[in-house]
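G., the chain you wanted modeled:
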Amino acid sequence: MSQNPFAPLRPALETLAAEGRVLPATGQAMEELMRPDHTEVLDTLRLGEERVLDAFFEAGNYDVYVQLEPLHRSVDHPFRFFLDGSARTFFLGDVVEGSRRSPIHVSQIGAVAVHRERNGRMRVAAAHHKLLLMLDKSALSFSHEVERLVSDAGDRFGFVDLMERDSDVDATSGKEPRSRAAHKAHHEMATLEEELGRALARSPGDWLVLDGSLGKDLYAWTDIQEFLGVTKSFSRHPMFKLPAGRRSYTVNIFDLLSKLPASARTAVFSARSGAVAIWYVRLREQRHLDYPLMGVIKIELPRPNRDPVPSELINRLSSALVAERQSSPHGRDERWHAHLYAVFLAEQAVKQGFVSQEVVKAGLRWPVLAQGG
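Predicted structure as tokens:
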């Protein structure tokens, strides 16, 4: 019988059962999902009050739409590393102490970077996975002991206070501890992604593609060279100011992207007071898709000096991203229309490091942790 992956958490869970009264979840562990779409909500929050974005935050182009030719690896190979993370969170039940209670959650989080070699072969360059025990720390008198026992379990385990202040979590999930769990896990996953991204051994010219936005703490990434964020789900709220002779006009994102041709990009816009350059690329023709915004990705490029981006660089990166669409995970992911295949491989590598829901249910049982694998 294989080793129970949750066995190192046994002392912490036994303490919860001994010091408090545990009310287990019906059917054992229940997966918690984030609603609404977490990525879109965060993208909206990070815009802040800056809902109207100015074009053209680039040097060398004054067209709203720029047609691209796919730039294949055999011609130019800028994107060499692809980084993605994932999180799965499970509700185990509630622990009651007197008149106070806290939900108990366990989350699996992971981040993986894949490297594409010059011959096109893909390999996992680095992978980090952790198991998190999450509680409302202030609700239990013995939570410090639980935190200590989780720390003693080793580096692969972590303790998270569900009610610790975090602007993203506070804005997306409210004040009820259970509603915060999946969002907290996502925040811890983003931290894991950053740690992994910083540790990658990259040569000059080896660009890193991060799946997702650059995060609320943009400056955590500003000292990392040659990287960008690619988002498949993005806010529908921003407006875009476009010039028209001596005047300007404003369009919403639906009008902007519905007219974006296949294999083309928009102009570059300034966001977060010039600290980020953003633009959109259409990977696929609309006639093959159900919705005008499908098949479009949003790209974020940090600009710590707040300088406009050379259009030549934008065209090169965008053309290489268009070429990344060629191997599509059609039928294997509902976001296939906006997936980059190398990012899809990184995502699959992350999830392969997770134990299945069946193992979670078998390995986490009350009143104490199950012995078997």
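Confidence is low (pLDDT under 50) at residues 328-337, 369-373.

Shout if anything looks off.
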